[in-house]
Known about the structure:
This protein is mainly alpha-helical. Helix content is 68%, strand content 0%.
Amino acid sequence: MQDVTWRAQVEARVWDLEGELQRVGAQKPTKTSSWSEDPDYAIAKRNIKLAETVAANVPRLLSWRWLRRWASGSDVETAWGAIHRAEAALQMILSVETIKARLPDLRAGISSTLAGDGRSDEYTRALEHVEKRAPAEIGDEQRECVRVIKSAIDATSDAAYSNIRNYRNWLLMISTIVAAGLITVAVVHSRNSEFLYIPEAHSAGKQGADVAQIESAGAVGGLLMALFALIRLTVYSGPVALPLWQALVRVPAGAAAALVGAILLQSGLFTSIVPQTRTELLGYAVLFGAAPEILLRFLDNKVNAATAAARPKNDPLKSVPPQKPIPSAKEHGEGESAEGGSGGTGDDSGGRRP
């Protein structure tokens, strides 16, 4: 389902960009004799075609090719990277009216995606200078400024997506290893009851607890906590669906915690705790299965923070922070003079001024 969603989003964006390219093509080029000779037009056209090809190339579901692409995120990153490159190139050839109309979107992207970044204030001031100019005064220098800012926003968002994809893969690897280990232990115990023997109170002979039952009870406790976690976690509509995997990791974690807890409970290690009957032990297993929730809640906060940076600006769950008042030119000039008087250069952007 997630695979279908992102492909539909890419296709919709490709159609929008093709329409913009057609509107540009209907205008008379200012730098070359024809649009086919304009390098920015060629870059936009080539990347739009690449994104369309990637979105249309759908591997067979659950095939090795599909699994490899799903784990690496190559299709998603290639398609959206091509779209972002096409959008950046279009900034150099779109009409001035279109450029100015989209400046508020760029300011929103700076506030939400580049929040806390050292470039955000300078980028915001640069956009304000472009916005104050008359259409006739916006040339290649201002267009390049807008292109650089948009590329920085897109690159930050793409990096955030890559980070959460890697984190999802680690969650899946750990969950798979734990689940495989638990299944192996349950199967071996079913063949040899002396393996991982867990005594039960009031049991006849040497009959011990069923490891598979304990693991199942713990998984039920973990599943219950997973449902609560999905309510608490911020839903992310992207192709990674990290909150879902973060919630489901509670199932194998709960099963493992239940098994360890049952061993400690029934082993007599703690003299103040007496061994339990089978029914009581299964009840404790459910509680042990929910116990990892305390630790996993800290990971939930990290998941919410990671997915927030990767959401697109038009995601309804992504709110744009209130923008800070932009220092006036006079205040900015006074700040630079003060820095100059103290022996500074008056520019701490490291040459990143657009």
